[in-house]
Design a protein that fits this description.
The structure is a single chain. The protein has one domain. The protein is 76% helix and 0% strand. It is built from 13 helices and no strands.
Length: 246
């Protein structure tokens, strides 16, 4: 299983589009939002803005990475790769575990790069322990979106899954308050935002960055994670990894 894990990591690591959209793009957004919006706020408020944007872009990058990595399941099924794995000694359950682990591991580069941009480009100042807690908590919370990506990748064929992940990522970011503050939205949209896992994912990061971690985002994300994991397992039972259609 270790060999398969390393092989899958190398496959994704060679994908330049994946690296751009999940690592470089969130870092560029971090700079763009702080420099454009930051020039319009009083100097004393810049640090608060930079810190808020930092957490939002870390959350956005983590969600994009988690969904983008796990959607490979749909493409591997369509290409026949998963059927070929049936003749190897690797059990089907281990193949699925490897995909989950790959999805979780590939979230980390995005989190670290955006954190470095926030610290050294935008001057966000946090203690070392807070930085480590921020990256660690968002990394752990990203498992929720890995489970969502696995469920979508198992349920849909390659083209449909790719479109679904693109729409999901946009909805989660835009309506979850990652691209702009939830406070500027109408009341109804605020209620919708708080019904999305992306909102609570960012709230988890903001609480940790502020040094006041709360149990509420953890519990909400755990609930979403349980639902997505159950959905993934249910789909896997109805549509095994080696299935090519249906």
């Amino acid at each position: 299983m270790t060999d398969l894990l390393l092989f899958q990591l190398r496959r994704v690591g060679r994908n330049k589009q994946y690296l751009f959209f999940t690592v470089l793009l969130p870092a560029l957004f971090t700079i763009f939002f702080t420099k454009v919006i930051g020039g319009q706020v009083p100097a004393g408020d810049f640090q608060d803005l930079a810190g808020s944007v930092l957490v939002s872009m870390m959350a956005y990058g983590a969600i994009s990475a988690a969904l983008g990595a796990t959607i490979r399941i749909a493409f591997d099924r369509s290409s026949g790769w998963l059927r070929q794995l049936r003749v190897t000694p690797v059990p089907a359950g281990s193949v699925l575990v490897v995909d989950v682990v790959v999805g979780a591991l590939l979230v980390l580069p995005s989190l670290v790069v955006v954190a470095l941009v926030g610290r050294f480009v935008n001057g966000v100042e946090l203690g070392l322990g807070t930085w480590l807690a921020l990256v660690g908590s968002l990394w752990a919370g990203s498992v929720v979106f890995v489970a969502l990506g696995v469920a979508v990748g198992l349920a849909l064929d390659a083209q449909a899954a790719g479109a679904a992940i693109g729409i999901l990522g946009t909805v989660l970011a835009a309506l979850g308050g990652l691209w702009f503050p939830v406070e500027i939205l109408p009341d109804g949209m605020v209620t919708l935002a708080r019904a999305l896992p992306s909102y609570w994912f960012a709230e988890l990061g903001r609480d940790v960055a502020a040094g006041a971690p709360s149990v509420v985002p953890v519990l909400v994300l755990a609930g979403f994670g349980a639902v997505f994991a159950a959905a993934a397992l249910g789909v896997a039972r109805r549509r095994p990894l080696h299935a090519v259609a249906g």
